[in-house]
Amino acid sequence: MFKKSYLLIVFVSLFLSCGNDIDDIIPVCNSVTNISSSAIADNSATLSWETINSSASYNLEYGISGFTLGSGTTISVSETSVILTDLQANTTYDVYVQTLCSSINSSLHSDVYSFTTLIPNVATEFKTNLSELNLFSGNLNELNITTKAFEYNLSTTLFSDYAHKQRIIALPEGTSMEFDGDGLPLFPENTVIAKTFYYNHDERDLSLGRTIIETRILMKLNGEWETGDYKWNDEQTEAVLDLGGSSLPVTWIDVEGNTNSTTYKIPSDTDCFTCHGNNGNIIPVGPKLRSMNFEINGVNQLEQFISNSQLTGVANSASITSLPNWEDGDFRLEARARAYMDINCAHCHIPGGSCADETTLNLAFETPLNESQIVEQSHLVSYRISFYLDGLSMPFIGTSMMHTEGVELIQSYLDTLD
């Protein structure tokens, strides 16, 4: 009897003890589910998730895709969403979320969730630094054009002391250049045009690098074009807005192995108006449709613009005049010389240009010869291009030397007019 009573007491004690352990079991802290992102911008994003632990808080850890858990940025929140800020543009981030049910009870980390920030829009105001305009992605000196802009080239280019140039146009989202004849297209409000000038150290070996001098900017703001110039630093890491103009020595080796040097002139804001001014307004000079109507690597540039909806109002390039390449001997001498004068001289020597009050020359390519005054003033033109003297010879500004090849071309043409 005593043995049975003892066993009963032991059994009851064990039962009560086990009952206390059941009460002390910690409930499961569940991982979050259905992580999602919204309101993604170039430097921020909103993350949200779902949970069944309604009274929990959360630790969120994030970093550039591929980071090791524990080495990222961690933030604690009490809601099921959070706004991440100060993110890098055009960058993929990984995110992990951990549920905190109590100080001693947390879930496993969620599966990784990834999102990518947007490419920033091109800025439509003159910032202090070129990098702030968002025209380029990655390292600035690599001049990698943002997908928010596109490159354009000209069949005949302006001579600028043998400098190379990268030309780009950035149009606001959903807009286009509109056809308006063979000249300049109609550019939408907030268009940005940029031209970067640089010298290769050695034209025989481009792997030796280059020196970037300046990036000139045109912005169409409130219906009018405004100019700005960014001067690159010696480290080639940034360019700073500089409207005062300056000069600096430049040396390079050409394709024949000759060492060349010049004192390159970065224009002031006043100089920009001298060339870009017409009837008191600033206008672009280079990107006329006739100057862009030619093939690059077997593809017509204007056709490419039309296909990409960057140029509208015209079905194809066939109805647009093509400005000849002055270096292409397949064109007649007159066409080549007139094309050279169009891009190098006509911005000043046209009605409304900065020289219109001083001369009756009209050097636009489309101007008939008998209306251009080229024949009547051929001797004056010949004289003004035959030497270099700052403030007297032509071009009036923008160079620090004669363009030997260009002068020979024009002189050869003028000789046929005698």
Structure report:
This is Putative repeat protein (TIGR03806 family). Pfam families: fn3. Residues 31-120 form the Fibronectin type-III domain. 18% of the residues lie in helices and 29% in strands. By secondary structure, it is α+β, with helices and mostly antiparallel strands. It has three domains: 33-116, Immunoglobulin-like (Sandwich); 120-323, no CATH class; 324-418, no CATH class. The strands form eight sheets. It has a six-stranded antiparallel β-sheet, with helices on one face. Strand 6 (92-102) and strand 7 form a beta hairpin. Helix 5 (333-344) packs across helix 8 and helix 7 (378-385) runs antiparallel to helix 8 (404-415). The longest helix is centred in the N-terminal third of the chain and has 22 residues, at 2-23. The radius of gyration is 34 Å and the shape is elongated. Mean pLDDT is 92; it is low at 1-23.
